[in-house]
Amino acid sequence: MDISTETLKALRDKTGVSVMQCKKALEETGGDVEKAEVILRKRSGAVAEKKADRELGAGAVASYIHDNTIGAMVLLSCETDFVGRNPEFIDLARSIAMQVAATNPTYRTTEDVPAEAREAALAVFEEEVKGKPEDMKEKILAGKLASYFKDQVLMEQAYIKDDSKAVRDLITEAVQKFGERIEVTSYARYSARG
């Protein structure tokens, strides 16, 4: 199948993935851009999993200040200085700093949520599911917990510039794009409003 340059460019602009990966996905889908985008997202998750054990030795610190009253700093880590100095990588770090300033997350990842906070939420939700069928309780409780902590966990939050993606998805896409493990290592938020 012959893929037009315009179609290839549109998919590359939309995803930021390499031309060769975009071309391969378009060939698999018969030129359907929407399906190719789904394939690329699916592959980016697999790529991110493979790179999860790699050492982080570089990165970028980015900040965002809103109206001189709220500010945030983010350390976005990667494997090499080559990626850490890339303008697109630095823009990603700044976008995440903007996310932190706007949403004030309590935890970085789901794993960072303390057991006490989980247990307190679980106690409340267990009261809400009383009387439900036993086989459904587990699923309902898991869904309620995930929903409750979603806004408090940076990596699970809906991205403020595109709510169809979570912050985790931005990182996963960046891993595929740059070919390195990428992680929000730390962040801080400051507010003059208290």
In a nutshell, what does this entry contain?
The chain has helices at 5-15, 19-28, 33-50, 81-84, 87-103, 115-128, 134-150, 167-178, and strands spanning 58-66, 70-78, 158-159, 162-166, 183-191. The chain has 194 residues and is of the alpha+beta class.
Any overview of this molecule?
The chain is α+β, with helices and mostly antiparallel strands. The protein folds into three domains: 5-50, Ubiquitin-associated (UBA) domain (Helicase, Ruva Protein, domain 3, Orthogonal Bundle), CATH 1.10.8.10; 58-103 and 166-191, Elongation factor Ts, dimerisation domain (Tetrahydropterin Synthase, Chain A, 2-Layer Sandwich); 114-150, no CATH class. The protein has helices at residues 5-15, 19-28, 33-50, 81-84, 87-103, 115-128, 134-150, 167-178; strands at residues 58-66, 70-78, 158-159, 162-166, 183-191. The strands form two sheets. A three-stranded antiparallel beta sheet has the order 1-2-5. Helix 1 packs across helix 2 and helix 3 packs across helix 8. The radius of gyration is 20 Å and the shape is globular. The mean pLDDT is 88.
What is the correct CATH architecture of the largest domain? Answer: 2-Layer Sandwich
Give average pLDDT, whole number: 88
State the order of secondary-structure elements, H for helix, E for strand: HHHEEHHHHEEHE
Which band does the percent of strand residues land in?
15-25%
Strand order, biggest sheet? 1-2-5
How many structural domains can be distinguished in the coordinates? 3
Fold-level CATH name of the largest domain? Tetrahydropterin Synthase, Chain A
Radius of gyration: 20 Å
Class computed from helices, strands and strand pairing: alpha+beta
Distance between the termini: 59 Å
How many strands, which pairing sense, and closed or not: the largest β-sheet? 3 strands, antiparallel
Inertia-based shape: globular
What is the count of β-strands? Answer: 5
Q: Stretches where pLDDT falls below 50 for ≥5 residues?
A: none
CATH top level of the largest domain?
Alpha Beta
Helix content: 40-55%
Total of helices: 8
**Going by CATH, what is the homologous superfamily of the largest domain?**
Elongation factor Ts, dimerisation domain
